[in-house]
Design goal:
single chain; alpha/beta; 7-stranded mixed β-sheet
Length: about 230
């Protein structure tokens, strides 16, 4: 496993690297110096920080949350970003249904273990999760990418054929459904990785807590916006 050896990274982040393999995953995105990247539903900004090192001082990372994700990551996010610790990272709190992303301005979009949340329905309001128009979100992201731009998706696998049906109860989504979803917005699947596969995962338990925490089967997909 290759590591991000960068002074100032927290011990918690370095420990997380062993689970998420971010160096290898981000290499698939082609993110590099001078690029403009959006880390969507970035949470506390773990991937935003890593992208900031890759794009360098001439690049820009938009670390995008909605209000709910800000609440989930409160405290940890501020520790990462306060005091202009990462001067090329801009945190934005937005309504995902209307992100105001200028068209053709992003070299890459990251959706790391959050694509399923675009289909999450919180019927009892416990998490103050807003209703999301998934089609509108994906349309905005596709439009914001430059021709040739990349969208990287990592998510917890649902059972084949389940589509988005497990997004709320299990926080998982079907890989084949994801491919069709993004390709229906004009993006082309150009790569995938089995690096985060866990074939022993029965895909029938909730992904983010309990016995499957850190042990889920995850798919990795790379999409590209056609150059013409």
């Amino acid at each position: 496993m290759r590591r991000f050896a960068h002074a100032g990274r927290s011990a918690a982040d370095v420990t997380r690297d062993a689970l998420d393999h971010p160096a290898e995953i981000l290499r698939l995105s082609g993110v590099g110096p001078g690029m403009r990247v959006a880390d969507v539903l970035a949470g506390d900004g773990y991937y935003s920080e890593l992208a900031s090192y890759l794009v360098g001082p001439k690049g820009r990372v938009l670390s995008i949350n909605n209000a709910a994700f800000d609440a989930f990551s409160d405290g940890d996010r501020q520790k990462r970003l306060d005091g202009r610790r990462l001067p090329n990272v801009e945190h934005q709190t937005v309504d995902l249904n209307d992100m105001h992303l200028p068209p053709g301005t992003l070299d890459a979009v990251l959706l790391i273990k959050v694509y399923h949340d675009l289909y999450w329905v919180d019927t009892d309001g416990k998490f103050k999760w807003p209703k999301i128009d998934t089609n509108a979100v994906l349309s905005q992201l596709a439009a914001a990418l430059k021709p040739g731009g990349v969208l990287l998706v990592v998510d917890h696998s649902a059972k084949a054929g389940r589509g988005a049906a497990d997004a709320s109860a299990l926080h998982r989504i079907d890989e084949a459904y994801a491919v069709k979803d993004f390709e229906s917005h004009g993006l082309k699947l150009t790569g995938k990785s089995d690096l985060l596969r866990r074939p022993e995962d029965a895909r029938d338990q909730i992904s983010y807590k309990g016995p499957m925490l850190g042990k889920t089967d995850r798919f990795v997909l790379v999409f590209r916006k056609p150059a013409h």
